[in-house]
Write a structure and sequence with these properties.
mainly alpha; 93% helix
Length: 174
């Protein structure tokens, strides 16, 4: 102990320091160490939770990408179907329009032919009437100069009968 005294060792002081140390140790452990451990444990839990959330978010994002690419693929297929359907409908409408146009043009041609035939028949009738009138005038002029009144009447009656008979048969004029 004397050696200890030479070095300046005081047992009372040493015990006081040990008691002080133990009190400080207890206080630090109770009021600092445990709260710090709790804060560290809480921080560790938050970090773990953040990592788990990050993993979940990454998985959700990958799933969303797969879903999005699937939706895009379905949309692309649907759009191609709509385009193809539209092309088919356009072709069908074009064919219907062409068929309708043909029918209409055939109707117009048939109407024009019928009208031309009517006009031709009308003109032939007019031509006949004109030729009959002309024939009557020529015949009258010839009869007046060549025949007597009785002969004129008989010839005129015969010619008119013949003309009427020809008119009833309606010979086409060529």
């Amino acid at each position: 102990m004397e050696i200890l005294n030479q070095f300046g060792f005081d047992l009372k002081l040493f015990i006081g320091q040990v008691v002080n140390f133990l009190v400080l140790f207890y206080v630090f452990k109770r009021f600092l160490y445990k709260p710090i451990l709790n804060v560290l444990a809480e921080r560790e839990n938050r970090i773990k939770q953040g990592l788990e959330d990050s993993d979940r978010a990454r998985l959700l994002m990958e799933e969303s990408r797969r879903d999005a690419s699937g939706i895009l693929k379905e949309t692309r297929i649907e759009a191609e179907g709509i385009i193809e359907n539209s092309r088919k409908m356009a072709e069908q409408m074009r064919q219907e329009i062409v068929a309708h146009s043909r029918v209409e043009s055939e109707k117009i041609i048939a109407q024009a032919q019928a009208q031309a035939t009517l006009e031709m028949e009308k003109m032939q009738g007019n031509l006949r009437n004109i030729s009959v009138e002309l024939s009557q005038r020529i015949l009258l002029n010839v009869i007046r100069s060549v025949f007597s009144e009785d002969e004129k009447a008989k010839i005129m009656q015969r010619a008119l009968g013949q003309i009427e008979a020809d008119r009833g048969e309606q010979h086409p004029i060529s």
